[in-house]
Design a protein that fits this description.
single chain; mainly beta; 4-stranded antiparallel β-sheet; 20 strands; rod-shaped
Length: 418
Amino acid sequence: MFGRLGRITAMALALLAGGAAERAEAFGGSPITYTFGALPSGGVEDHCPGLWEAWFSAPNDATIRFKPGASSPVTEIAGGQDIFIGTYRPSVPPISASGINAGCGNLSNVVIISQNGVDSSDIAADDYIGVVFEADYTDGLRYRYELALSGATDTVLINTRTQVAVNTAPVADAGPSQTVAPGAAVSLDGSGSGDADGDPLTYAWSQTGGTAVTGFPSTQQDPSFIAPDAVGMLIFSLTVNDGQTNSSLSSVAVTTDASRNQPPVAEAGPDQTVASGAPVSLTAAGSRDVEPGQSLTYSWTKTAGPDITLTGATSATPSFLAPTLAAGAPNAVITLQVTVSDGYATAMDTVTITVTAPPNRPPVADAGADRSVASAASVTLDGRGSSDPDPSQTLSYAWSQTAGPSVTLADATSATPG
């Protein structure tokens, strides 16, 4: 029981989960009594007639009730639903969305927005009790309804109905299908998605078919990835949300086709000039491929020049020892070719290695010791003491008389003429 200025000490129904009880001044003013079917027109009564009751009668009670199928006022509503101030009735549940959905055939998709009563643990006089909910009506529109008692000194009935702006679901557009080379870089395009209400969109991409790629799921508008280095089809699906509703799925296919492959670029490295017998390192590290997801393989061969032994002929960086050349010998020119493959196409490039011989050093001539002989005696000269610092070279000889009476030399091109 409560009076206009007093406080009540009975228990009351708790608020809907998540709400907080209001504590304010007491109701007051002339009694208000609206029994089932007697609410003023407008508000919830027009769309859900005969199922609502509201009354305030100081100092007895203040109640908002919903009774599916009720046609006359009752004191207790077993199985009914209400919000009230006064004697707490634990068998009577709060007004619920499911109850309105079940009891009022004209309304559907009911959502309780707020429900205000009093705190059952410490009931203080309250100047507002009521329920606010939204629902779809049979005219295809959605409305917000409020049925409440309000006022500390001049209590009034609130029975309103307001049309709710209906959200239009966004439309997802996963972009056009694409055909790319295996291992290619791919960008999807969700920019064609839109919302008729102009609401900002969030994006949810997922891969729904094909060999899994890195980067999914993704929340970007235009996600990118590297296609698998294999022929096949990938499927991606996009859903957008406008803050209220998810769109329907939009899907796009990305096909990897070997005919779209771009051949690699082979780089055998710069030409080199090296010394006889020196180690030589080659490099095809500058070779490259347009498709970032493809791996390159290498094959080196000698196409010209003296024989060599190539180590690592299937790597990007093989090596060999330059041939050993005699001092003063002509330079040796070696040509090598690298073939680079991305698995679908090949490319070739060559490199020239010039091997230089050591410089020639002059020999040392030794005509032998001076001698004294008798007139008309036979004399044999000896140039065998001559030498050459380059041991691989063969000496030749050329003798000539530079002074004295003329003599005849036999075999003037041998080491020991006579």
